[in-house]
Design goal:
Oligomer: single chain
Radius of gyration: 19 Å
Number of strands: 12
Order of helices and strands: EHEHEHEEHEEEEEEHHEHHHHHHH
Low-confidence stretches: none
CATH superfamily of the largest domain: Spore Coat Polysaccharide Biosynthesis Protein SpsA, Chain A
């Protein structure tokens, strides 16, 4: 038997109902040089072992305690011994050439990660993510979110980072920069990893022909207060820790304007208190921020300006106009 090329890590919490369809789609891959590790994060719904029973290429790991999304992912990543590793949400299915086409995108040694084209599972299969982007104002966004799937053809084949719903990594790159930050639990953990890969000189390739269908927040996604708190806290840490002082100063005006608009939007949504407390918690975590800055300085093989070239400078179009467009598309779909 040919040695596996990659390990596909599927974190699972209360998502056993999705696994039969997902594992069936993996069994139909045109390139089967992979093994699968499902990390069950103390799910009360059970049934993971039953779903995996008919697939000899699947290993199930049971966590003794609930570690959260990032922690569960890391359990699987640490077990991997293959040259490549993949993170795949449990509430997805994949096209038959999803794996093969993503592997083909690792066509240069400095490609550290590959982002799939993630589509919404329900027709008309609008884009969930065509890779993640990050703006000079300090906000992350799913590229082309809720745009028609045809829009992916006009996008650049490089992006800032791979969305964690379907993300491929060169294992040697992760060995160099580290895994997901488990303290983040969920939200911005993939962008934080993207920063470390960027600082180390790796690029993220977008493989528009590696197609994943996502049920979107059907599993492993905290709602309400926790969602807004985690997002705000982690976003603040990512900005403070990964953006160098020169760029934080250069784009300070854009940052202030972005946060003012974001704050007003959170107030309108009725979640301003969770957002405010999350941002405050991020700013207070000085020890984590300093540790990340020190690690970033050790990794740095590109200049501050080279990093800036990977960021979206038209932050207003990305975050404000983009959000308005997505809301209109969402209203049309509803």
């Amino acid at each position: 038997m040919t040695d596996p090329l990659a390990t596909i890590v599927i974190p699972n919490y209360n998502g056993a109902r999705f696994l039969p369809a997902l594992l069936g789609s993996l069994a139909r891959q045109s390139d089967r040089r992979f093994v699968v590790t499902i990390v069950d994060d103390c799910s009360p719904d059970g049934g993971v072992g039953d779903a995996a029973r008919d697939y000899p290429f699947v290993e199930v790991v049971q966590n003794e305690t609930n570690l959260g999304f990032a922690g569960a992912c890391n359990v699987g990543l640490r077990r991997a011994r293959t040259p490549f590793v993949t993170l795949l949400n449990n509430d997805t299915t994949v096209d038959s050439q999803w794996f093969e086409n993503a592997m083909d995108a690792f066509d240069a040694d400095d490609i550290g990660s590959v982002a799939s084209l993630v589509l919404l599972a329900e027709p008309p299969h609008l884009i969930d993510s065509a890779g993640d982007v990050y703006s000079v104002a300090g906000g992350a966004a799913k590229r082309a979110h809720l745009a028609p799937r045809e829009a992916a053809a006009g996008l650049s084949d490089e992006c800032f980072s791979a969305c964690g719903a379907s993300a491929f990594f060169r294992r040697s790159a992760l060995d160099a920069v580290g895994l997901l930050d488990e303290a983040f639990e969920s939200y911005y953990e993939d962008v934080d990893l993207g920063f470390r890969l960027a600082w180390a000189g790796y690029r993220c390739r977008f493989a528009g022909n590696s197609i994943c269908y996502h049920h979107l927040s059907a599993s492993y996604s905290p709602k309400g207060w926790k969602y807004h708190y985690n997002s705000a806290r982690n976003a603040e840490i990512v900005w403070q820790a990964n953006m160098p002082k020169t760029l934080r100063r250069k784009f300070a005006g854009a940052r202030r304007a972005f946060l003012a608009i974001q704050s007003m939007n959170k107030l309108r949504q009725g979640v301003w208190r969770a957002y405010r407390q999350g941002r405050a918690a991020g700013r207070r975590d000085a020890a984590r921020i300093e540790a990340k800055r020190a690690a970033q300085q050790k990794l740095a093989s590109i200049s501050d300006e080279q990093l800036a070239q990977r960021l979206v400078h038209d932050w207003f179009s990305l975050h404000v106009r983009g959000s308005l467009r997505a809301n209109r598309r969402r209203a049309t779909c509803d």
